[in-house]
Design a protein that fits this description.
Elements: H1 2-18, E1 29-33, E2 38-42, E3 47-54, E4 60-70, E5 73-81, H2 85-91, H3 102-109, H4 111-121, E6 127-136, E7 139-147, E8 153-161, E9 164-172, H5 180-183, E10 187-188
Antiparallel strand pairs: 1-2, 2-10, 3-4, 4-5, 5-9, 6-7, 7-8, 8-9
Helix pairs in contact: 2-3
């Protein structure tokens, strides 16, 4: 009995020694940003930097990158504000083939796929293992799983909500747990900072056109500006 008791004590002590100490562990906490309308889990307080985002149709939008690290793991949320796309479109000179006002709308509508290609599909040496439609909190978007040239693993999720583009990227070294818990922790906030809930799949609603409609050849499917019913569910 004495031998068994000593063995059990040694095993328990070894197990406890493997647990991370409070000083070395970085706790995951919910980060809430009312200004950019989102919440997400980060390993500590993220750093924030301002960026400019060149769009598919030659406009430049303001954005921010929120980033945090935990050892060799990297986590970022990029938010690009497309809400002033119409004003930006009319403020720049354009070739004759791009005079129709519909192009600022197309810039917004295509922003998810443009970001997926620009940031991830064309990354040098990358192997794409998953590349498909996705949603979170019933907000539609896109998800990619990548194996990078250095053998690290990236999970990326991209969403368009109230004409702001959200790009989440979690990258971990070989053998580490995949970063899906980060990319799947995203939530969207309303103007009062409250979590938005939907009753059905949400597709982004374009801003209303205010500077004249010079769209030619419009089809019956155009729509999306201002007339869509509110899909949000009150808490």
């Amino acid at each position: 009995m004495r031998v068994r008791f000593c063995t059990a004590v040694v095993a328990a002590a070894a197990w406890l020694g493997c647990l991370p100490s409070p000083a070395s562990a970085q706790d995951w906490t919910e980060y809430v940003n009312k200004e950019d309308g989102f919440s997400v889990n980060f390993p500590g307080q993220p750093q924030v930097r301002e960026i400019t985002w060149p769009s598919e149709y030659g406009l430049t939008f303001a954005g921010r990158v929120y980033s945090a690290q935990r050892g060799a793991e990297r986590y970022t949320v990029t938010v690009v504000d497309y809400r002033d796309a119409e004003q930006k479109y009319h403020a720049v000179s354009r070739p004759p083939s791009f005079q129709q006002a519909i192009y600022w709308q197309i810039d917004i509508m295509g922003s998810i796929q443009y970001a997926a290609t620009k940031l991830f599909r064309q990354r040098p040496g990358v192997k794409v293992h998953y590349d498909a439609w996705h949603y979170i909190d019933l907000v539609e978007g896109h998800m990619l799983h990548l194996a990078n040239a250095d053998q690290s693993v990236t999970h990326a999720s991209i969403y368009l909500h109230e004409n702001r583009l959200y790009v989440l990227e979690g990258t971990v070294p070989p053998g580490a747990p995949e970063p899906g818990l980060f990319t799947q922790s995203l939530g969207f906030l309303d103007a009062d900072g409250q979590r938005v809930r939907y009753r059905e799949i949400y597709s982004n609603r374009l801003p209303p056109m205010t500077m004249g409609n010079r769209v030619g050849g419009g089809g019956r499917g155009g729509g999306g500006q201002g007339g869509a019913p509110d899909q949000r569910q009150q808490r």
